[in-house]
Amino acid sequence: MTASYVxxxxxxxxxxxxxxxxxxxxxxxxxxxxxxxxxxxxGWVEHDPEEIWRCTQDVIHEAMSARGLRPQDLVAIGxxxxxxxxxxxxxxxxxxxxxxxxxxxxxxxxxVAEFAAHGGQERYRAQTGLPLATYFSxxxxxxxLENVAGARAQAEAGDLLFGNIDTFLIWHLTGGPHGGxxxxxxxxxxxxxLMNLNTLQWDxxxxxxxxxxxxxxxxxxxxxxIYGTANLPPITGVAIAGDLGDQQAALVGQAxxxxxxAKNTYGTGCFMLMNTGNKPVLSNCGLLTTVAYKFGxxxxxxxxxxxxxxxxxxxxxxxxxxxxxxxxxxxEPLARTVSDNGGVYFVPAFSGLYAPxxxxxxxxxIAGLTRFVNKGHxxxxxxxxxxxxxxxxxxxxxxxxxxxxxxxxxxxxxxxxMVTNDLLMQFQSDILAKPVVRPMVKETTALGAAYAxxxxxxxxxxxxxxxxxxxxDRRWEPTMDAPTRERLYHFWKKAVMRSFDWIESP
Length: 506
Description:
Elements: E1 5-11, E2 15-21, E3 27-34, E4 46-47, H1 49-66, E5 74-81, E6 86-90, E7 100-101, H2 109-116, H3 125-128, H4 137-147, H5 151-156, E8 160-164, H6 165-173, E9 183-185, H7 186-189, E10 195-196, E11 201-202, H8 204-210, E12 219-221, E13 224-229, E14 239-245, H9 246-253, E15 262-266, E16 270-277, E17 288-293, E18 301-308, H10 312-320, H11 331-335, E19 345-347, E20 365-367, H12 375-398, E21 412-415, H13 422-432, E22 436-439, H14 444-456, H15 463-469, E23 472-476, H16 482-499
Parallel strand pairs: 1-5, 5-14, 9-12, 15-21, 21-22
Antiparallel strand pairs: 1-2, 2-3, 4-7, 6-8, 10-11, 13-14, 15-16, 16-18, 17-18, 19-20, 22-23
Helix pairs in contact: 9-14, 10-12, 12-13
């Protein structure tokens, strides 16, 4: 029997999924498993890498057995992952020296301030497209080497490996201590603040500044090529042939291959990427310049990105910390019990503010409270906070006084867990004054990784075939009048200002 499916391993911030797709991009089988969120102290967020590896094995077994699939049924597997989440592990045992430090974690804020004091927050933007911030992997790795006993000496001796989640999983999938391949693709490498955007290689000047040994870093490869084969019974011998950071994978899954095409993913955070073509465009308005994808020997594609730290996580916080809802899907009916936000604005700066502000010292605020406000208004303010933050990123991309993008946004393609919330999607369209479009296949992150793997082995001919697969499920058109839109946005901006400078330096 000829292999007829392509698979993706999607390791996200809260869960791990294994999804098998057919040639049309439809899901054949899938499995998902959540992992713990670890909060050792305020501002710190960790995951257990060994738990993630166990979850990975479990979902692969579950999905394959659910349809009775064998390794020969799969042409290839692509990997996609939460970006910037940092792991350092022993090359001989595979054991991590410390928990994974998650992208949301802010513990390296003192290091950010230290480096910014000599050259400013934009010190490395020309090389990396990124401002100095707690977000990226490089300084997290430095923190581990400086704070875990013996780690610095072991790294210098060549005994430790570094990687984002993709690197850790590919190493384990291809053999781990017994011949595992240590690599990452250009999209994930571009999120470390250690890779030069122009050369697509590790920047030795930044490595010197951060005091990181280059031999602990993975080899940088394209997003679509055969890296090796799996050494895990349900998928033994299947080619591992795609690797994309989750947001870049969603861009590919949404078939945004032309400059000006953009997607927004609504997950734990929100991430908007706009394709800018084959040359990096540096931002003047708080956006990130990142590699969008690189298919084999073809030139790399680049994107501008607006990263928002807290969106879906705010709904989880409402559920888990305040107990206002029992499950995340309850937020929409609760928000529909009121006709508007009652004057309430919720700025979820739990880990500071990301794009377009990049303020580590901001903290969350709820503004506009009166005795009139009830839990329905709070729920509505939570959903509106998601849409307002996306509007800020769109404004930054379209800012007329910058060179960020010469192409305006005509329509926003959306994906992620929150796009089933009709109230949020309609408000998003209203506050943007732009159409919002949801694709037929909503698992675009996993689909993008599967596409990258399928392209590498010839399962898909080219990107034109991927474009042909894309289809609309639902479209929202703006219905809000302009004065109402701008009044709401005015008060949102006012609330954001109240969140600034909350944390004071010692």
